[in-house]
Design a protein that fits this description.
The complex is a heterodimer of chains A (about 290) and B (about 325). With about 290 residues, chain A is mainly α. Chain A has two domains: about 1-50, no CATH class; about 70-285, MetI-like fold, CATH 1.10.3720.10. Helix content of chain A is about 80%, strand content about 0%. Chain A is built from twelve helices and no strands. Chain A is globular. Chain B is mainly α. Chain B has one domain: MetI-like (MetI-like fold, Orthogonal Bundle), CATH 1.10.3720.10. Chain B has 16 helices and no strands. Chain B has helices at about 1-20, 25-55, 65-70, 80-85, 85-120, 125-130, 135, 140-150, 155-165, 180-205, 210-220, 225-235, 235-250, 255-260, 270-280, 285-319. In chain B, helix 5 runs parallel beside helix 10 (about 180-205), helix 5 (about 85-120) runs antiparallel to helix 13 (about 235-250) and helix 11 runs antiparallel to helix 12 (about 225-235). The two termini of chain B are about 20 Å apart. Classes of the chains: A mainly alpha (about 290), B mainly alpha (about 325). The interface between A and B is large, with 105 and 102 residues.
Chain lengths: ~290, ~325
């Protein structure tokens, strides 16, 4: 074993300069092929949206001219729904962070009896199927007059992000040195002020990750939008596209334009906030 | 030695930091609880209450008239009897099983292969890994709609390509024939789940020291032996997490199937999730919908117990 490790650096360096070129290039080619295959459906979505024809025979593999007719029709029918999605998702993020942040802080720092039970509870929520929640929630919402309301949908969508965000924030806050929090408390700041002035700024990255994922969960939500709304009063774009494809069978160009528009947040976040996305996927699932 | 010192001093420091100012007397404790209370209340309302209410609802008779009269009389086991003897329930259960197992096997195998491939770290591999996340990040309904377009029997590019290459002679009715629909839905769900499996397994793979991986290969064990004999056993905790989380999210899936096939054709892709939706929100029989929902929860619970037990055993082994 020790001989192995000792031999390693030299071996690696020798193989390095020559090997990386050949093996690396081979991997690069194979990686590109994998990428092209797996992302092809999304490419085809954009390609269809940018061309006037519908059948595969009419479509070219690359859009030769930019035809925005499909996007114009899609925008005309879905602009309002996209705005609804945005409002609901932002609302859900706000509710989620307001509820999850103090809880995560308390679970990380105060040694409350029952901490383990609460943490265990957040994990258990993952196994409750959404349709079961919707089944009961719809009936409760009828009694509370929350069906077809922004508030009702925002509260339901926030529930998609709260357990995840609590777990994520708690894992981060446990690692904040006790001395830092202690110093603020000695200065006479109360618990809430310590949380807002000291802990929240330090947890910025974890808060962004939690908020970002809650935004994506709420933006992608279809189940609650479908079941908690019976009229057109509150219609996010996921529900919009579901109805649109039913009403415009065959008008694939416009449908794919709607699909492209609703994928924009995910694509933008992936480019702009890549490191937070990566942190969220590994942090939220393993802890 | 330094490790030991750190370990013994750490709790002391923490205790002191708890002590200052906090001095959790009775009022202090109450104030501390107020931090957690909103979250606990939220989870009780949005997860606890539905669990209980579904059990109660499954013994009640809901009809479309219930929403005018407000009456849903208790009818004992009638809903349970009606659902459990329904052929559609049996076939939904069977489809759910096929869908879940098929999806997990496909997602895990391909995700693991990609995780191994990307740990070779070549130029642009990081960029590629994050681009591959897209299918998982876009709304599932959108993914379903896109695949409906790609798999369309008449105008879809998949049939066009297969026919052009001479692989098949006539267009395959991917989503429109009862014989093909379930397999197509599984394939699409595999596509959606690959990124998640890849990312988590890649993370697990990075935690195995490079020396161990290289030693396994240099020992003369072929890459297959090295993988199954050394690497996979070391990744057991991560593999368990991926499979259990995958199971929980796959068994209850609804969005994707509604977007792709609406449970059809001829109920060929009806699963417990879509069947619950059917009963509750289309037939307005929330009582029978609740029965199917409860079955779904029971299945999840069995796996949660297996998961927790596996975790506990794993912890004890490590000790």
């Amino acid at each position: 074993m020790s001989a192995l490790t000792a031999a390693r650096p030299g071996r690696r360096r020798r193989g390095g300069t020559r090997g990386i070129d050949r093996a690396g290039a081979g991997s690069l080619v194979l990686g590109t092929v994998i990428l092209v295959i797996l992302l092809f459906p999304l490419y085809w979505m954009v390609n269809t949206a940018l061309q006037p024809g519908t059948s595969a025979a009419e479509l070219s593999w690359f859009p030769r001219t930019l035809d925005l007719g499909n996007f114009r029709r899609a925008w005309e029918s879905q602009a309002g729904n996209l705005l609804t999605s945005l409002l609901v998702a932002l609302g859900a993020v706000a509710v989620c962070l307001v509820v999850a942040t103090p809880a995560a802080y308390a679970l990380a720092r105060f040694r409350l009896p029952g901490t383990r039970t609460v943490v265990f509870g957040t994990l258990i929520t993952q196994m409750v199927p959404g349709i079961v929640v919707a089944n009961a929630l719809y009936n409760a919402y009828v009694e509370l007059n929350l069906v077809n309301s922004y508030l009702g949908l925002i509260l339901a969508d926030a529930s998609l992000g709260i357990p995840f965000t609590i777990v994520l924030l708690r894992a981060f806050m446990v690692s904040i040195p006790g001395e830092v929090v202690e110093a603020a408390m000695v200065d006479g700041a109360g618990r809430m002020r310590t949380l807002l002035r000291v802990v929240v700024p330090m947890s910025r990255n974890a808060l962004i990750t939690g908020g970002l994922f809650t935004f994506l969960f709420a933006w992608s939500d279809f189940l609650f939008a479908l079941t908690l709304n019976t009229t057109d009063a509150v219609k996010p774009v996921t529900l919009g596209i579901y109805e649109y494809i039913g009403a415009h069978v065959g008008d694939w160009g416009a449908v794919m334009a709607v699909a492209t528009l609703s994928s924009i947040p995910a694509a933008v976040l992936l480019v702009v906030a890549q490191k937070y996305v990566a942190a969220g996927i590994s942090g939220g699932s393993i802890k | 030695m330094t490790m030991m010192v750190n370990r013994t001093s750490a709790p002391a420091v923490r205790e002191r930091s708890q002590g200052v100012g906090a001095g959790p007397g009775r009022r202090g404790r109450l104030a501390q609880w107020l931090f957690v209370a909103p979250a606990v209340l939220y989870m009780l309302v949005f997860f606890g209450y539905p669990l209980v209410r579904n059990v109660v609802m499954s013994f009640q008779d809901y009809t479309p008239a219930t929403y005018f009269t407000g009456e849903a009389p208790f009818t004992g086991l009638e809903n349970w009897w009606a659902v459990l003897t329904d052929e559609l329930f049996a076939s939904s259960l069977w489809h759910t099983l096929l869908f879940t197992v098929g999806s997990l096997v496909g997602q895990f195998t391909i995700g693991m292969a990609l995780a191994l491939f990307f740990s070779r770290r070549f130029p642009l591999s990081g960029v590629m890994r994050s681009l591959l996340l897209l299918p998982w990040l876009i709304p599932m309904v959108v993914a379903g709609t896109v695949w409906r377009r790609v798999l369309d029997q008449e105008t879809g590019v998949v049939n066009e390509a297969l026919q052009g290459l001479g692989v098949v002679s006539s267009a395959i009715p991917w989503l429109s024939s009862p014989d093909h629909a379930l397999i197509s839905v599984i394939l699409v769900n595999i596509w959606i789940g690959i990124p998640f499996n890849m990312v988590i397994l890649y993370g697990g793979l990075q935690e195995i020291p490079r020396e161990v991986r290289e030693a396994a290969l240099l020992d003369g064990a072929g890459p297959f032996r090295a993988f199954f004999g050394v690497i996979l056993p070391m990744m057991k905790p991560v593999v368990t997490v991926v499979l259990v989380l995958g199971f929980m999210s796959t068994v209850k899936i609804l969005d994707l199937i509604l977007a792709l096939t609406n449970g059809g054709p001829a109920h060929a892709t009806e699963t417990l999730g879509t069947y619950t939706y059917q009963l509750s929100f289309l037939q307005l029989d929330f009582g029978q919908g609740a029965v199917v929902g409860n079955v779904l929860i029971l299945i999840s619970m069995v796996f949660a117990v297996i998961y927790l037990r596996a975790n506990r055993d794993g912890l004890e082994e490590r000790r």
